[in-house]
Amino acid sequence: MKIDRQTMQEAIERIVVPEIRTLGFKGSSPHFRRRGDGEHQLLMLFYHKHGGRFYVEAGRVSDQRVRELQRLWEAAGNSLAESSLTVGHCSRRARLGPDGFLAGQDRGYVFGPDNTGSSIYPHQPDCVYNDIAMQVASGIKQHAASFFRELL
User: Which domain of life is it from (predicted)?
Assistant: First the structure.
């Protein structure tokens, strides 16, 4: 793992994950979940495949849809536990950016170079990664409630 990704991941674990937990989410990075009124509410933190950026995605899926998915999985000889739900199972999902969670937009947080060589970043001090993590924690705190309050 590159040093910039490792440093960013450490900042996320130290700053973002505790904020996610104060909102009642359980799980571990990258998947967090909580129960809402008749639905499952999920958050996922994931890194871009070429490095240098990560995303925060939120999703919601109704209890009814979870039961439908469980029946489909069972018919295929598998099981889908509620504790295994991810944002990928959600019909309503969006990515976090500076102005909240918006669907259909490729929004992420850049913290270093990607591995395609298309961008060059000097080595950054830890405070840069901490600042990014604090922006994310603040964004989740500020915008998660309104995203999860909207109608499915």
Answer: Bacteria
